[in-house]
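Most newcomers find our protein records easier to grasp once they have seen one. To make this concrete, we reproduce a full record directly below:

===
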Amino acid sequence: MEEQRETLHKNPRGQIVLGFEERGDTLCISCRDDGRGIDRHEISKAVVTRGLAKEESLPGTSTSELFRLLCQEGFSTSHTIDLYSGRGVGVGAVYEAVHACPGEIEIITEVGQGTEFVITIPRVPAVEVNPIAS
């Protein structure tokens, strides 16, 4: 992994930036990294391999539609499975939790530069808790 980053003239240690912003009645949470980014071609290959779409239908598919497939449980473009990736659990779990709020998730990516996940959920009013008097 460090070798791949050095080839791309990146710091051997990856960077993850979290952001939080209130926008009216919503809360936007962003998580951006400076990794490999998500390759549309790799997603397309995985979609066809898993039988989720026919290859001839993919050229007309928007990038956002392809990214929605990333959120399906069990979907992964990884060729290897390890402790941290390849099982197709992480993005799908986040997607389900966000939509249960109800909220939206947007994926912004550039191959070789990194990926940003932007989650927008309704803001919940603060609840005041009164301690029980003894």
